[in-house]
Amino acid sequence: MKALFGLGVAGVLLAAQPMGAQAQTQTLEQFFQAQPFTIVVGYPPGAGYDLYARLIATRMGQYLPGNPKVVVQNMPGAGSLSSANHLYNVARQDGSVIGTFSRGITMLPLIDSNGVRYDSLKFNWVGTPSDEVSLAIAWHESGVSTFEDLRTRGMTSATSGAGSDGNIYGRVLNTILGTRIKTVTGYQGSAQSMLAIERREVDGATSVSYAAIKTAQREWLVNKKVNLLAQHALKAHPDLKDVPVILDFAASDDDRRVLEMVFARQSIGYPYAAPPNVPADRLAAIRKAFDATLKDPEFLAACAKAGLEVNGMSGQQLQALLEKLFSMPPAIAERAKTAMQPPAK
Prior knowledge:
The chain is an alpha/beta fold. The longest helix is centred in the C-terminal third of the chain and has 16 residues, at 253-268. A six-stranded mixed beta sheet has the order 2-1-3-10-4-11, with helices on both faces. Strands 8-5-9 form a three-stranded antiparallel beta sheet. A two-stranded parallel ribbon has the order 6-7. Strand 6 (155-158), helix 8 (165-177) and strand 7 (181-184) form a beta-alpha-beta unit. It is globular, with a radius of gyration of 21 Å. The two termini are 42 Å apart. The chain has helices at residues 2-16, 21-24, 28-33, 48-60, 81-89, 108-111, 147-152, 165-177, 190-198, 210-216, 218-222, 253-268, 280-293, 297-306, 315-326, 330-340, and strands spanning 37-41, 70-74, 97-100, 124-128, 134-139, 155-158, 181-184, 204-209, 226-232, 272-274, 313-314. It has two domains: 29-130 and 269-328, 3-Layer(aba) Sandwich (D-Maltodextrin-Binding Protein, domain 2), CATH 3.40.190; 134-265, 3-Layer(aba) Sandwich (D-Maltodextrin-Binding Protein, domain 2).
């Protein structure tokens, strides 16, 4: 049994290694033409990550040397942790495979290393098509008009479950910024949460995707049915320059660093990475093709039609952000971890 296990591990390791000496003599065009270029998606078909990947797949091949076919492979599991582990340990490291997984996965080694089998800084980051700005909102008749009201009056907030952004962010705001948010769980997705707000079952929501609300509840914004209390992001969205960013409420530099660690996932958005050890020239070609795809008119039109924003970062920018976050003092990481975790029962 041990011998068989050893052979299995060896097979996986061999599969993950770069191609042999013959492949190293190939031109970039010859390499990319030799097989389909694969995007591994850590979610099932239909999810936001999948939609971006499929739209990217329709255009990215035009910008890769040799114009290969680009295919999408869905690999859901453990909130996309399975796909991240696969990309790092099993996928070919020759430049023919990239992957996308939860923005939270990038920071998971700092928060909870259980099940993590990768080093975030050793991925070759390709970029992200868009950041994700979430909002803390309150119904216009709730009596909650500003973020300061969350500290003095408090509010009830609708969300789906214990692991949702709304629940986690509510705990973080209560712990770090002294708000008095009472989260009401059990709503099945954002549509039910929004209905609960409109019915006045709750005062508002701690975390609502701006991209989603401006599409599904646009009338709320146009007619000022909700008060926008704060943006959960590291920088303001171009449409929301008058809405404060959550970092603005930090009382100290350490508090600000904790909030940066928690909310950096919003800027990371929908990250794409290549495995470790990809040859430098192939990685450069992949990054160049990815960046070009994000500017492609047909891609932009398709995203606009699907209600998807394109406001992302390059691979180099994503790498620099993660290096900054992973260099935070251990005490800051521990505070962020504690703030995000539910209280012990």
